[in-house]
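Bug #77: duplicate submission created two jobs. Keeping one. Sequence:
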Amino acid sequence: MRRFMLALATLALTAVAASAQPTLTSSPLIVSPGASATLTVTGTAGQSFAVIGSRTWSGFSYAGVDLAVGTDVTILGVGVLDGTGTGSITFTPPFPAQDRFYVQAVTSSNNFGTITATNRATLISNQEARLYMPIGGLVAANGTPVFLSPGLTVSKSGSVYTFNHPGMFEYGNPIPTVSVTGNATITSIVANFSQTVITLSNDGGIAITIQTVRR
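Kept job's structure:
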């Protein structure tokens, strides 16, 4: 019985430790150059926390813990988790000098003698998101859009489908990925910065994704 009670106690302590694992969230994750993000740490009330960040996502360790930031790490802010186990800082990422920045937090109950790390969050410049995130949609055989990314339009002439995306790509050639339904086959695909033209052998539904290769 004594062993059984010890096993239950061990399981209970393990469950408490798991539930107390701190987390880091950012609002927003996609940030405009010059704008700020709120980085929120959630963990055990009363513990100290520090939010750190770097331009790279690995290579730095502290107090025997490998962290998800690089050796160019910077302390972005410190504090104490309030009675709800929450703390936050406001941070302006170094955009547009770079297109993403990696942040993480650690919590501690002994002045950072030992630490517990949170997940890593990746802040992305909205310029990066605009330039490199894919767009696309689904179009019926008669040319009617089922759904399309905002700003993307389509027109149909015969079995030629023209997807217009002006101003949505600025670097790198847009690369479309296309699949068709029905008995149609793809005759040609011509893509540039402003539009993607797909010619089919006959009418067919089109599913398309367009993106550029990230530099």
